[in-house]
Specification:
The complex is a heterodimer of chains A (about 300) and B (about 375).
Chain A (H helix, E strand, L loop, with lengths): L1 H31 L6 H21 L5 H28 L8 H22 L4 E2 L7 E4 L8 E4 H23 L1 H11 L1 H6 L4 H27 L1 E2 L3 H16 L4 H21 L5 H15 L14
Antiparallel strand pairs in A: 1-4, 2-3
Chain B lengths: L1 H23 E8 L6 H20 L7 E8 L4 H13 L4 E3 L4 H13 L3 E4 L6 H4 L5 E3 L4 H15 L5 E5 L3 H16 L6 E4 L8 H9 L4 E5 L2 H13 L5 E4 L6 H7 L7 E4 L10 H9 L7 H19 L4 H10 L2 E3 L2 E3 L13 E6 L2 E4 L2
Parallel strand pairs in B: 1-2, 1-3, 3-4, 4-5, 6-7, 6-8, 8-9, 9-10
Antiparallel strand pairs in B: 10-13, 11-12, 13-14
Helix pairs in contact in B: 2-12, 3-4, 6-7, 9-10, 12-13
The chains are: A mainly alpha (about 300), B alpha/beta (about 375).
Chain lengths: ~300, ~375
């Protein structure tokens, strides 16, 4: 039981990170129907910026950990948002009216540009960061032969993710920006006719998605303590899978998909063979898509006539 | 038409450059992971080879010619390894000091065999590397069927009651060395409590760590490279797991400690005897340190690979791979690793492995 609980904690933490990245994929797909393959690399940029910010803040002599975290978070949010905005402006906007594959190819190109750019500027080595938050709570049940550890960092990650998702849901459902986003998603042409600045809405979508990926990047830096230019690819792939599993275009779906993938990975590793955990994840994906082609919470696409 | 003329000009210019290099110098290549996650080893290779080439040239080169070193990057990727092997061949290299990862060395060695190039690896330990009857292939390090058993014998002798888990990263090196470790361990009557494989390049090993905790593992024998090993150790301490990681020669880089920090304290690993401790090398080590570079791990092994080759070239009187390979096998060569020779397969006769332990960011041989 304790062992199960420990694997559950591992899975939820991992799933939270996947879910945050997955939102960026699903939101962009929902609005302009393209898959932003550069999104994982925005997460990687966020991780690097967090690392640099930590080093700069430590050099400036800030010793309070909560203050340092907030400053780093602000830096990561600001810079990744700027990247998200710039990527859309440079690589996707001009291709919006073009055939469907054009922005997709442009996205793959952007992903390569970001990866190799960081590799050139930061080097190809893995960059480590000393642990910032250590320790945790020991949750031991009746049978304390297996001590369950819940790290402070894991608590921070899970709480921050829940808070961000709540805030994000509120943004989509209650604010005028959210209304404009939903309108643009339903019918871009009509939204434009009704006076919505569609370009601005799409820009904001990229900015919000990138900001969430930036937070995920900060979490990866803190949780794993190492960053390299390639982390965006792996995490991006998993998050994209999470978005598809939950139903691409659906926001709760992305969160659910991320959580599910994290849990499948942890529990399969825990009770089966670690070697085949990715096989398990993708087998579940195939099964879900066979019976629900639009994902768990996705709506089947209605052809507009 | 204009572009065609430019292209022609460019081709002529580059081939002229290449010809220049050929006329004056003997080209050799140092090949390893200069980028990618194992780049620390590539850097060790490069420093070792550069210094060896410089010192040999300062003493007049070989056969009256200077050596020219080219640096090739295989990123420890088998496909890229074959590409850079072909590139080295097209640049006229007659010797390659490399590659590092066994998974790269093995496919690349076929290219070198076809192109009549001597390959001396300072770090590829998978037995298969020299077992395929290629006359041009050598290694100056040990083999995994020595390395795995060294760790297994040590654990079996010192901790006969310990619970041992085995994990590899599915690479040629990692899988190979853990298989050899398991073979020796099982022959001693000790059965591992867990045998798993992970995916290299990932960051999250928390599920593995929880599993080790559940199985109450005392020692984890890990076949893989320093990045993943460092992450596993870091995540073990994060979950309050005290298991000691035992690794192979792919942990000998200060980068390992950079990832683990104090969590790496007590990590055990196998590696060849440290040539820095040999007083005959004091002057050379001082040269490196004067340039603010610590010649750790494979640096001096790469230095020794170039030395052994240069010595054989002097004996053979030519850079022709067949004759140089025969000369390498025929006699002992004076290198920073001591006097070493090569057996019929191309394996070094230098002594094998010793256990090292990490402490305070440094590693030292266990007594």
């Amino acid at each position: 039981m304790n062992y199960f609980l420990q694997q559950l904690i591992n899975g939820v933490t991992l799933g939270a990170i996947y879910g945050l990245i997955a939102i960026g994929y699903t939101m962009v797909y929902g609005i302009i129907g393209m898959i932003n393959f550069a999104h994982g690399d925005i997460m990687m940029i966020g991780a690097f910026i967090s690392l640099i910010a930590f080093l700069v803040i430590a050099a400036l002599g800030v010793t309070s950990v909560p203050l340092a975290l907030v400053l780093v978070l602000v830096c990561a949010l600001f810079f990744t948002s700027a990247y998200g905005w710039a990527v859309e402006r440079v690589a996707y906007r001009r291709l919006r009216g073009s055939f469907k594959l054009a922005p997709l190819i442009s996205a793959i190109g952007m992903s390569i540009v970001l990866q190799n750019g960081v590799q050139l500027v930061q080097g190809a080595r893995v960059k480590p960061l000393a642990p910032v938050i250590t320790g945790g709570i020991e949750l031991s049940g009746a049978e304390s032969s297996y001590p369950v550890t819940l790290g402070w960092l894991q608590i921070v990650i899970i709480l921050l993710t829940v808070a961000l998702m709540a805030g994000f849901t509120w943004l989509i459902q209650r604010t005028s920006l959210g209304r404009a986003q939903r309108a643009t998603e339903q019918d871009m042409g009509m939204a434009m006719l009704l006076g919505i600045n569609v370009d601005r809405v799409i820009s904001m979508t990229f900015v919000i998605g990138a900001a969430l990926a930036g937070v995920a990047g900060l979490m990866v830096t803190l949780y794993y303590g190492v960053v390299d230019f390639y982390i965006g690819f792996n995490a991006g792939m998993k998050a994209f899978t999470a978005a598809v599993l939950g139903g691409i275009g659906s926001l709760p779906g992305a969160m659910l998909g991320g959580l599910l993938i994290g849990l499948i990975e942890a529990l399969w590793s825990g009770y089966g063979s670690i070697e085949y955990k990715d096989v398990a994840v993708f087998a579940v994906l195939i099964l879900v898509l066979m019976f629900r082609p639009s994902g768990l919470l996705g709506k089947p696409e209605v052809e507009k006539v | 038409m204009k572009t065609v003329r430019y292209a022609l000009f460019a081709v002529l210019a580059t081939s002229a450059l290449a010809l220049n290099a050929h006329a004056a110098d003997i080209v050799i290549s140092v090949t390893g992971p200069m980028t990618g996650s194992d780049a620390a080893f590539g850097e060790q290779f490069r420093h070792g080879a550069e210094k060896a080439v410089k010192n040999i040239n300062d003493q007049g080169g070989v056969l009256g010619k200077h050596l020219k070193l080219i640096v090739e990057d295989d990123a420890c990727d088998p496909k890229q390894a074959v590409n850079v092997a072909n590139d080295a061949a097209s640049q006229g290299a007659v010797m390659v000091a490399g590659h590092y990862c066994s998974g790269s060395s093995i496919p690349a060695s076929d290219v070198y065999a076809e192109n009549n190039i001597v390959e001396i690896s300072p770090g590829s330990t998978n037995p298969k590397f020299t077992e395929r009857g290629l006359a041009n292939v050598f290694r100056i390090c040990g083999r995994d069927d020595m390395q795995g058993p060294t760790a297994a014998n040590y654990l079996a002798a010192k901790f006969p009651k310990a619970r041992i888990a085995i994990v590899n990263d599915k690479s040629s090196f990692g899988k190979g060395v853990t298989d050899e470790f398991a073979k020796t361990l099982n022959a001693k009557g000790i059965k591992e409590v867990m045998n798993e494989a992970i995916t290299a390049g990932e960051k999250d090993y928390s599920a593995l760590v929880s599993k080790l905790k559940e199985a109450k593992v005392d020692f984890l024998y890990y076949g893989g490279y320093y990045n993943e090993a460092g992450l596993i150790v870091r995540q073990m301490r994060g979950q309050g797991v005290k298991t000691v990681l035992v690794g192979g020669d792919a942990l000998v880089a200060s980068e390992y400690w950079a990832i683990t920090g104090t969590a790496g304290e007590g990590t055990l690993m196998t590696f060849g005897p440290d040539p820095r401790l040999d007083h005959a090398n004091d002057a050379l080590v001082a040269q490196f340190r004067a340039e603010k570079y610590e010649p750790e791990a494979y640096t001096l092994y790469t230095y020794g690979a170039v030395q052994a080759w240069a010595d054989a070239v002097k004996t053979a009187g030519t850079t022709d791979a067949v004759k140089v390979a025969a000369a390498l096998r025929a006699s002992q060569h004076d290198t920073v690793l001591g006097k070493i020779g090569f057996d019929a397969k191309g394996d070094s006769t230098a002594p094998g492995y010793v256990m090292y332990s990490w402490k305070d960011g440094k590693y030292a041989a266990l007594q």
